[in-house]
């Protein structure tokens, strides 16, 4: 018969399981925050900056065209003396409108480049994060469940009567049967002591068996939940 396992601390498995649960929660939160930041940046570029500059470019080009028309009309005017009026202000307005239009076009082009670069970086990010996501969504839950099953199995093992206790119970029962067969005379005190010892041993056996059965039922429930989860996936 194989010897007893030298189990010193089942609680260590529960401590490790709780540590893995905390790590999974923190890792999942960190990944979710990173994903959210990436999404916010993408939305800001696509729905805010891109739309802003797409609307700004035609509006500023229209303002530039208006400034050029004003300059042209001013250049076509003549004063009573036959001299041309000053067009300094109109030329400055054209220069300002042209600068704004060019800046808007540059910003639109830059936003498009950023969008392209961001899409590429997001693709790389998702590729690099795939193992982490697999760890959080599949590997860690599996490890946590396995640790729970291991703890339950060890608790069931520890709740089982030990060979020494089983031998003690059997010796006590054998002694009672032998005495009954031999008709040995015992005092009332000896009878009471033997009955007390027998009752205590049997109570210990019932308590251990109940603890073992409860641990095995918990283990079966955990394994049933794991099988159902596997089928759902």
Question: What labels would you give this structure?
Answer:
233 residues; mainly alpha; 4 helices
Structure overview:
With 233 residues, the protein is an all-alpha fold. The protein has two domains: 9-133; 160-233. Helix content is 87%, strand content 0%. It is built from four helices and no strands. It has helices at residues 11-76, 88-159, 163-182, 188-232. The chain is rod-shaped, with a radius of gyration of 43 Å. The two termini are 42 Å apart. The mean pLDDT is 79.
Question: How many structural domains are formed by the residues?
Answer: 2
What is the approximate shape?
A: rod-shaped
Give the DSSP E fraction (strand runs of 2 or more residues).
under 5%
State Rg: 43 Å
Number of strands: 0
Share in helix: over 70%
SS-based class: mainly alpha
State mean pLDDT (0 to 100 scale): 79
Largest beta-sheet details: none
Short description:
By secondary structure, the chain is mainly alpha-helical. It is built from four helices and no strands.
List the helices and strands and how they pair.
Elements: H1 11-76, H2 88-159, H3 163-182, H4 188-232
Helix pairs in contact: 1-2, 2-4, 3-4
């Amino acid at each position: 018969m194989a010897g007893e396992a030298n189990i010193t601390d089942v609680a260590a498995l529960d401590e490790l399981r709780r540590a893995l649960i905390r790590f999974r929660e923190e890792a999942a939160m960190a990944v979710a925050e990173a994903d959210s930041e990436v999404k916010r940046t993408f939305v800001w570029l696509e729905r805010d900056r891109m739309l802003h500059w797409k609307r700004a470019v035609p509006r500023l080009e229209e303002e530039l065209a208006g400034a050029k028309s004003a300059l042209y009309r001013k250049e076509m005017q003549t004063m009573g003396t036959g001299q041309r009026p000053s067009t300094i202000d109109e030329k400055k307005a054209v220069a300002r409108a042209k600068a704004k239009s060019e800046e808007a076009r540059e910003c639109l082009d830059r936003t498009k480049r950023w969008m392209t670069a961001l899409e590429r970086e997001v693709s790389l990010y998702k590729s690099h994060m795939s193992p982490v996501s697999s760890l959080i969504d599949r590997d860690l839950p599996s490890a946590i469940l396995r640790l729970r099953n291991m703890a339950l199995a060890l608790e069931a093992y520890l709740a089982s009567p030990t060979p020494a206790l089983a031998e003690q119970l059997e010796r006590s029962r054998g002694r009672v049967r032998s005495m009954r067969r031999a008709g040995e005379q015992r005092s009332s005190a000896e009878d009471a002591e033997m009955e007390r010892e027998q009752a205590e041993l049997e109570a210990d056996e019932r308590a251990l068996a109940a603890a073992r059965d409860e641990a095995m039922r918990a283990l079966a429930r955990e394994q049933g939940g794991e099988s159902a989860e596997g089928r759902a996936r």
